[in-house]
Amino acid sequence: MIPALLGLLAAAIVALPTGTDVDYQLGGAADAPANVGVVVRDRSEPPAAGRYNVCYVNGFQTQPDEKRFWARHPGLVLRDAAGSPVVDEAWGERLLDLRTPARRHALARIVGRWIAGCARDGYGAVELDNLDSFTRSDGLLTRRQATGYAALLVHRAHRNGLAVGQKNLAGYDGTRIGYDFAVAEECGRYDECGRYVAHYGDQVLMIEYRPADFAETCAAHGATHAVELRDRDLTPDGVHGWC
Predict the structure, then answer these.
(1) Helix axes 101-121, 143-159, angle to 10 degrees
(2) CATH number of the CATH domain containing 36
(3) Its pTM surpasses 0.85
(4) Pairing of strands 93-94, 87-88
């Protein structure tokens, strides 16, 4: 791509707004109050009118309702020595197989189509979940494979004019491969907020699920960052609290 065109593409990417709140709506779309300037929704939902919208994409694991889709791509799901899929038991999600360049590029083409769909729908950014899936792979995946694959997804998102959010793997400087912001889920509970802020400054969205953690995160970062208290199921009519 010629440098002039690259410059135009970079100009099309809009950073997260600051001085406003976030509403993390992965469990279903809901009306956001006036204090909310950033809304995060699943890629299956339309963006919220008049807000900065972040599109959730599970980039490194399968969604529980996608078994039929991934059954058509059995070679791209990580399997153990016995041939059984490797599963993130906490969420019932199968890990994607990032072990070879060919598989990483094949996966990037699939997930890249979802990312392009976010852009067509009017989203301004994409959140790529489960960068840390390699830590749940029983040693089958490596950090280098995960970040190499992440770089492919970041490139595709930028090519579609979308900012890209790092999700998970606190302490990893995702800006080195082009990530623009971070979504820090329960960073107060696990004392990780500062590790994201060290790399992304005020471009960090913080989501807590326990009131005590929310209060601590608000005290430490609420003046400079968007912090929200949500219920774990992220239901539309569930808990929505701000600092």
Answers:
(1) 30
(2) 3.20.20.70
(3) yes
(4) antiparallel
